[in-house]
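Researcher: Can you fold this with 2-acetamido-2-deoxy-beta-D-glucopyranose in place?
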Amino acid sequence: MIVKNIIQRIRPQRPHQRSDNVRRFYMMIVTLSILVIWRLLTTVGVNKPSLTLNDIRKCATDNLDADLSFLDSAKPIHTDEFFERRERLARALVASNADAFILEPGYTSQYYGNISQTDWEPWEPEERPFLMLILPEFSQSGEMSAKTAFLAPHFEEGRVRMLGIPSREDELDIVIWEEHWNPYATLLASHIFAGFNNTTKRRAPKLVVDEEIRDFISRGLANAGFETVGLTPEVELVRQIKSPAEVEILRAVNTGTVAAVRAMRPCLVSGLTEDEVQYILNEVLIFIGFDLFFNIVLFEEDGALPHGGFIVGTKKATEDTMIVIDVGAHYLGYSSDICRSFFIDPAQRDVANLFTGWLGLLGQRSSRKAQDISYLGLREEKLKVWDIVLVAQSAAAAVLKPNNTAADVDIAARAVIEDAGYGEHFTHRLGHGIGIKAHESPYLNKWNTEVQLRPGMIFTDEPGIYIEGKFGVRHEDVYLVKRNEEAELLTGRRAIGPYDP
Ligand SMILES: *[C@@H]1O[C@H](CO)[C@@H](O)[C@H](O)[C@H]1NC(C)=O
Ligand SMILES: *[C@@H]1O[C@H](CO)[C@@H](O)[C@H](O)[C@H]1NC(C)=O
Ligand SMILES: *[C@@H]1O[C@H](CO)[C@@H](O)[C@H](O)[C@H]1NC(C)=O
Ligand SMILES: *[C@@H]1O[C@H](CO)[C@@H](O)[C@H](O)[C@H]1NC(C)=O
């Protein structure tokens, strides 16, 4: 169209004027072409069209490669530690007036027996109970030790022995049941509970039933004649207090997960989608040697729902997008759970950029003016909220001390957010214990006034502010409660600012 108009306009003109105009026209084309090529060249490495996901992944892993020393202090849990855990549990059972602890394959059996649900799942046990029991046993001289026993289907006995469950005994003590027997009655009548139901001790054995056990098993035990109770505070405390080896693994996996986000951030550019950022972060976590667990990447208003919602993952980042990433990985059987809220870096403002910027401004000047006020207001609110959440997180960390209650910690953070006028936007509890599972007891909420913190407990500290339809901000770090000092950060370093999370 433009070319045709120009030709039409120059047609009636005199010959030498005409060649002048044509020359000017060609000069303009050449100049524009040079600008376009120059722009393409100068934006290499800055903007998305010239970067592949692979380039960004490599940028992130290169950033990380500089330092993987956070892995150094983490060692696999030693065999002896499994025995120590069972000894502590046996003492807790005595303190709870209980006779045994009973559990199914899962997180708890990973803690006491190094058997995870995935170890057992390929066997498809489904309706056939495979149970682990830990019970206090007394020697002639009255000394207590922890006895470990199992209940397993007869035809699976050989495979149970092959699981490699750490044991002090030469052979695992397995009570077997045939397919046509009642497994729970078999257990009650077995040598494990021989001391019961005799003339001097005519009472049902009292079992502390793990919280992960399936309901039909719990009812089966009760119907067969066991007394069943839920977890007692003493039994819960065993796993809540982390050993030095656990502390070091949790430090490694949580520090590494934060390091992955931090290494990735400077590589991110406008135009990337939530799904693409999730993919890149997964790649960085795999590069470290972590197993993927969860990875929630939320942009702008998507981040106003703490765990996302019906997010499709196609929202694109801009330089003003508040990005919230809640991510956890597994390492040596332990979980991380951290959250960072940040902006990507602005693209480098080269001359070509400014040039296109001006062109854009010329076209938009009149229409943009009216939006500027709300635009600046939103950005300022993001920065303000980011700071408030950080102050709330510090306030909670300051009271993560022995003998304070779980509620105290939540209330300390909540007070900061309420004072800033955002109380109704802090919609979840402050945090939770963390270990083999990402979420473990005790839970830090303002109602939990019963539980006192103890040295060795490890918690997430994760206040947030969520403004529906706009954006959300959450900072999540992991802390170890110490005996006589401030809680110790297990995530390496906290966020400093929205460009340095
Ligand atoms: C626990 O299980 C893991 C995975 O199967 C294994 O690598 C490790 O050696 C076991 N630990 C002990 C103490 O048996
Ligand atoms: C009955 O059980 C008690 C407690 O375990 C034990 O000390 C006692 O020897 C048992 N008596 C008989 C007759 O088995
Ligand atoms: C307990 O003893 C009584 C009487 O000896 C017997 O009928 C019952 O079956 C026993 N229960 C178990 C679970 O062994
Ligand atoms: C916490 O309370 C226990 C007793 O319940 C006490 O022995 C301990 O010294 C207290 N610790 C602190 C840090 O106050």
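Model: Folded with 2-acetamido-2-deoxy-beta-D-glucopyranose in place. The first strand starts at residue 100 and ends at 103.
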